[in-house]
Amino acid sequence: QQQVKQSPQSLIVQKGGISIINCAYENTAFDYFPWYQQFPGKGPALLIAIRPDVSEKKEGRFTISFNKSAKQFSLHIMDSQPGDSATYFCAARPGDKIIFGKGTRLHILP
Amino acid sequence: GAGVSQSPSNKVTEKGKDVELRCDPISGHTALYWYRQSLGQGLEFLIYFQGNSAPDKSGLPSDRFSAERTGGSVSTLTIQRTQQEDSAVYLCASSSGINSPLHFGNGTRLTVT
Q: pLDDT by residue (tens digit) across A34-86?
């Protein structure tokens, strides 16, 4: 129950397309759902985050959609660019720590 | 300002040796986290510090792993009698509070031969 399940494991999208990454959780005590972006050789960095009292949050080309009843949330990257090629991690907070999904390697074709 | 600093950036050690990994968090950040990143396994939580105390050690894989934090700042993760399965990138992150984002260092890549 202390898990966040992420899919797909890898994703290839054409430049200008929409990239969609999905996550699911079981523990209803989770109260914070961030997404992190990681480039090779670097640590992850916070991209965008949402709390469960909100169904959608948008920051530029990045949108989180949150479905509390289904216990699912997703990251949408609009107008995907080659510079978005990275590994993306969804995460959730139970208590004082953050637990992460296994990651999605996103490749945007030029 | 300076971000989270980890050293060494790379460490190659022989099986059975002990290793120490160091993390310098962002100044003033009270929370410090250690994660392990293995290929295809995402970010595995190891331990969390609030100040010098470790309220949650639940992720440490075995008693060969230990961590300490001194002065509410620098943290050291120690792995004793290293095994090949310990090979991974060890990431440290700090945060100004539980409602604040994690700031990660670039990690220490540990290779056990």
A: 999 999 999 999 999 999 899 999 999 999 999 999 999 999 999 999 999 99
E-assigned strands of chain A?
A: 4-7, 10-14, 19-25, 33-38, 45-50, 56-59, 62-67, 72-77, 86-92, 99-100, 104-109
A44–B43 CB contact, under 8 Å? yes
B98 near A CB under 8 A: yes
CB pair distance less than 8 Å for B56 and A44: no
- Other beta carbons less than 10 A from residue A41's beta carbon: 10
The Cβ of residue B12 has, within 10 Å, a number of other Cβ atoms equal to 12
Q: B39: Cβ–Cβ under 8 A, 6 or more apart, which residues? A: none
- Which residues partner with B20 through β-bridges? B78
Q: What is the pLDDT of residue A78?
A: 98
Spatial separation of the C-alpha atoms in residues B90 and B77, rounded to whole Å: 9
For residue B113, the tally of other CB atoms under 10 A from its CB is 10
- Model pLDDT for residues A97-108, shown as the tens digit of each residue: 899 999 999 999
Which phi and psi (to 5°) does residue B34 adopt?
-120, 135
Tell me the mean pLDDT per 10 residues along chain B, length 113.
91 98 96 91 90 89 95 95 97 89 96 97
Residue B91 has its nearest CB partner, among A6, A43, A99, at A43
Contact flag B33-A100 (C-beta cutoff 8 Å): no
Q: CB of B36 within 8 A of CB of B112?
A: no
